[in-house]
Amino acid sequence: MTGSGSPRRIEVGVDRPANGGxxxxxxxxxxxxxxxxxPGERVIAEITDDRHDSYWRGEVVEVLDASPHRVxxxxxxxxxxxxxxxxxxxxxxxxxxLKQAVLLDVLxxxxxxxxxxxTGTELASGGVQRLGGADTGWRIRTRLAVDGQGRPGxxxxxxxxxxxxxxxxxAPGMLAGLADGGFTPHSELAVVLDAxxxxxxxxxxxxxxxxxxxxxxxxxxxxxxxxxxxxxAQVVVEGEANAVQRVGGRSWDIPVxxxxxxxxxxxxxxxxxxxxxxxxxxxxxxxxxxxxxxxxGVFAGALLGGVDSVDGVDSVDIVDSDPAALAAAERxxxxxxxxxxxxxxxxxxxxxxxxxxPDVVVLDPPRTGAGERVISAVAAARPGVVIHVxxxxxxxxxxxxxxxxxxxxxxxxxxxxxxxxxxxxEAVACLIPSASG
Length: 437
Description:
Helix content: 10-25%
Largest sheet: 8 strands, mixed
CATH class of the largest domain: Alpha Beta
Shape: globular
CATH architecture of the largest domain: 3-Layer(aba) Sandwich
CATH superfamily of the largest domain: Vaccinia Virus protein VP39
Distance between the termini: 49 Å
Radius of gyration: 22 Å
Number of strands: 21
Number of helices: 11
Number of domains: 3
Strand content: 25-35%
CATH topology of the largest domain: Rossmann fold
Strand order of the largest sheet: 6-20-21-19-18-15-16-17
Structural class: alpha/beta
C-alpha cells in the first residue's frame, strides 16, 4: 500500500468470486478485491494496495456477517501467513462451486464463448469434479523453502518469510521428520512420493541474493520465481535423484526436481479425459497425435493405448522445452521405436516443424497459456480434435476464444479440483472444426 500512516480499514460487502481466490465487492465507489472473504459476506478489510483509481485490494481482518460456508481454517500454515491454502476457510464443496463460477465467468467475459455452448458442457451441468476421496493429504510433490536456521516450510504469501507450521496438503507422512531442520539455510527442498509411496528429497542450493530495490510485492514474487527457476547445485538428501511414477500401464522415471502433477490422482484423470474426448469426438480411430508442452509424455502414453483398452494412435510427436522431461519421455517410450518422436524447444518455434495432418492435438501449456502464435499453427494443421488443458482460468478462456476465431467450436469442458483448499482449478476442453471453419 502506498502512502503513510496507519493501515486503512473499510467495511465491504462482497458478492462474487474473482479469478485468483479473492472475493469482489464495492466501497467508496471502487471495486475492492478482498482476500479471505467469501461471496455473500460483509467484512472489515485492511487495504493492502490502493495505487489504482478503479480498484483496491484488501485482506479480511474481521467478519461482520459470515457466510454459512465459512469453516474454521483447515490449514495451520495458511493461518500463520503462508500462501498455500488460500481457500482453507471455505467448506471444500462450496469452494468447488466458487471455482465453477469463476470458470464460467471467464469463459464468457474473456473467451466470449456463447452461453448456449458453455451451458451444454459438463462443467456447467456437473460443476468442478473432486479428485480422489479427500480434500487434504492429496499432494505427492512439493517444494519447501528453508529458513535461516535450516528449517523447511511454506513461503509466506507474497513474502520471503518461511512459515514452519504444517500445511495439510502433503500426503500423510510425506514431511515426517523434516521439521527438525538441519538443511542448508535459504536452500529449497524438492520432496516427492513415488508410485510405491517411497520418499525422495533433493536439496537445491540457495538462490542468489536479490539486489535491494523498491519493487512491490508482486514484482518481488515474480523475481523470486525467475531466480528459483535457474539451474542450481543439487544434493540428494533421501532416496534417489529420480522417482518412478505410473499412469495406466506405463512408468516414468522423473527427476525429483522435475515436473509431475502434484495431486496423486491428477495424471490418471487427465489422461483418461484426453482419451475419452478423442474417442468420442473424432469419429474415427486417431492415427497421428501431437502432444504439445508434452513434458514426459503422459498424454502421449494415453493416446498410444496406455489407458484402459482404447485403441492407440500410430505415432505421437512430443514437443517441450524441458530437456529433463523429454529425456524421461525417451526412457519411457524406448521400446516404441518411431511411434514416438520428441522435439526440444519452444513450442511456438517448433510446432511449425511438425509435418502431416494430426488427428488429435493435445495442448497443456504453462499458466501463461498457449497464445496466438501456437494456436494459429495448430489451427492451420487442421486437426480433427483439439484437447486443451489449462491451469489458469483466464488464459484458458482466452485460448479457447482464439481457437473459436480460427474455425473451431467447443464441444466439451470439464473442470477438476486438482488443488483442494486453494483457488486453483484445472480445466480440459475439447474442440472440433466448426462447419463454417
